[in-house]
């Protein structure tokens, strides 16, 4: 079970530290089972309650996960240093697993950065300056108004996940439950337990989270709900108008729920936004530039109710202080110069999704992807499908990284897919999946 690594310690803190150090060093692998608590207690000569406390601490910090009688195991993405393995695809294999945007659709940054650097030389940003570039706030607020997002103060964060983490930490405490999409973004599913919170799955279909599942989650005690409005990762779901009304109705019954909306796909989708904000006391709406202007810009804009935004701003002041105004000005320049034609980008991703989805459908394989740059393909066996596709020269992402209790599937990133690749890829997927009835992910 543990190979050659011995867990050590006499107190709960020492035992937890022993496990965490082993994970960081690579001696304990993601997915590896840990000994039952009583067995480890006997081996260490300690009270079982001591081991239980150590496991609880590791679980709250996102290092391990517990599945009842199936025991405790190291999480697939444990919250420790040194465990993020490099994304390596064998030579000769086409990588459709990364989830990255097409570099060819990202704007060139050199001229914008150079112009902003000159501006910074003339007027450096110093301590005490406003945390948000005024022109960025003006542009974003105008777009949010046009999209029907309620009015609220603004702040900047280092990407969508940073915003989600800060909002959850501002309101919740360890042990609180958070309703999340299932399937959903893998990093969100890792982040929540790393904050000491519990995940409650909410099923997803092409129109977004299912209202009946959300209602059950809230009735069971979930204190927050994290939702992706469009280009949902991994399924491509987009919240439709009727679905938004049903979800708002469910939230209206629980007005103390913290609502966190992620519109990270803005600028890459051509479906309208149907925001949910405005029916709960505390809410946050996040809009990122990562997929439109480049992940390394590390910028998202957050709006919300005054209490939520004020708490995020206050905590930022005690840490990083602010997100680089130079980067904020770079985004403003790219925005105002029309460096990205959002309609063209959205059309390119839509065309690639539809190309592969059509080729799969012709071969009896069902897929999902209303928006964004991924297709979600239900399969009978993820491991076998991923291995078969790798053997055929295609790397795709196993769905386990994105699932809690939903059925198995694989995620195919189509952002760089070319027209000549669609048919051979679809044939490889059909051969890997094999014949069978149409499957769904709900």
Architecture overview:
The chain is α/β, with parallel strands linked by helices and 442 residues long. Helix content is 40%, strand content 14%. The protein contains 15 helices and 15 strands. The protein has an 8-stranded mixed β-sheet with strand order 4-11-10-9-8-5-6-7, with helices on both faces. Strand 8, helix 9 and strand 9 form a beta-alpha-beta unit. Helix 1 crosses helix 3 and helix 14 crosses helix 15.
Give the rounded overall mean pLDDT: 92
Which strand order does the major sheet show?
4-11-10-9-8-5-6-7
Q: Give Rg in angstroms.
A: 23 Å
Count the beta strands.
Answer: 15
The assembly state of the depicted protein chains is single chain
Beginning-to-end CA distance, first to last residue? 33 Å
Unreliable residue stretches: none
Shape: globular
Short summary:
With 442 residues, the chain is an alpha/beta fold.
Layout of helices and strands:
Elements: H1 12-25, H2 37-44, H3 48-60, E1 64-66, E2 72-74, E3 94-95, H4 110-122, H5 134-146, E4 154-157, H6 160-171, E5 177-182, H7 186-194, E6 198-205, E7 208-209, H8 211-219, E8 224-228, H9 241-252, E9 258-262, E10 282-288, H10 290-293, E11 300-304, H11 306-317, H12 325-336, H13 342-362, E12 374-378, H14 382-391, E13 394-395, E14 397-398, E15 409-413, H15 419-433
Parallel strand pairs: 3-13, 5-6, 5-8, 8-9, 9-10
Antiparallel strand pairs: 1-2, 4-11, 6-7, 10-11, 12-15, 14-15
Helix pairs in contact: 1-3, 2-3, 4-12, 6-11, 8-9, 13-15, 14-15
């Amino acid at each position: 079970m543990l190979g050659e690594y011995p867990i050590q310690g006499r107190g709960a803190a020492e035992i937890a530290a022993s496990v965490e150090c082993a994970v960081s060093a690579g001696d304990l692998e993601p997915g590896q089972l840990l000994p039952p608590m009583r067995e480890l207690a006997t081996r260490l000569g300690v009270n079982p309650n001591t081991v239980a406390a150590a496991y609880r601490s590791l679980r709250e910090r996102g290092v391990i996960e517990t599945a009842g009688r199936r025991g405790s195991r190291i999480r697939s993405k444990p919250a420790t240093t040194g465990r993020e393995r490099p994304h390596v695809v064998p030579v000769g294999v086409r990588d459709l697993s990364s989830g990255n945007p097409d570099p060819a659709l990202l704007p060139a940054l050199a001229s914008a950065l150079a112009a902003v650097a000159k501006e910074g030389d003339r007027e450096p940003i110093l301590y005490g300056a406003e945390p948000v570039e005024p022109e960025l706030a003006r542009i974003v607020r105008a777009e949010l108004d046009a999209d029907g997002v309620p009015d609220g103060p603004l702040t900047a964060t280092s990407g969508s996940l940073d915003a989600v983490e800060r909002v959850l930490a501002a309101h919740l405490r360890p042990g609180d439950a958070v309703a999340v999409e299932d399937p959903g973004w893998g990093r969100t599913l890792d982040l929540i337990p790393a904050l000491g919170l519990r995940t409650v799955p909410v099923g997803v279909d092409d129109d977004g989270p299912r209202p009946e599942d959300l209602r059950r989650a809230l009735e069971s005690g979930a204190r927050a709900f994290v939702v992706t409005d469009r280009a949902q990762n991994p399924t491509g779901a987009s919240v439709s108008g009727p679905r938004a009304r049903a979800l708002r109705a469910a939230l209206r019954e629980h007005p103390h729920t913290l609502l966190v909306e992620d519109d990270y796909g803005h600028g890459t989708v051509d479906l309208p936004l149907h925001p949910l904000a405005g029916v709960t006391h505390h809410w946050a709406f996040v809009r990122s530039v990562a997929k439109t202007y480049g992940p390394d810009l590390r910028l998202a804009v957050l709006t919300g109710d005054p209490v939520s935004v004020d708490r995020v701003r206050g905590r930022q002041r005690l840490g990083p202080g602010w997100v680089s105004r130079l980067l904020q000005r770079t985004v403003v320049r790219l925005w105002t110069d029309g460096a990205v034609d959002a309609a063209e980008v959205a059309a390119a991703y839509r065309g690639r999704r539809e190309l592969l989805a059509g080729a799969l459908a012709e071969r009896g394989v069902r897929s999902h992807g209303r928006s964004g740059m991924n297709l979600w393909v239900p399969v009978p066996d993820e491991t076998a499908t991923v291995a078969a596709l790798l053997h055929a020269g295609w790397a795709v992402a196993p769905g386990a990284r994105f699932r809690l209790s939903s059925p198995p599937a694989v995620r195919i990133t189509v952002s760089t897919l070319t027209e000549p690749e669609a048919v051979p890829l679809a044939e490889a997927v059909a051969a890997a999946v094999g014949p069978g009835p149409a499957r769904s992910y709900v």
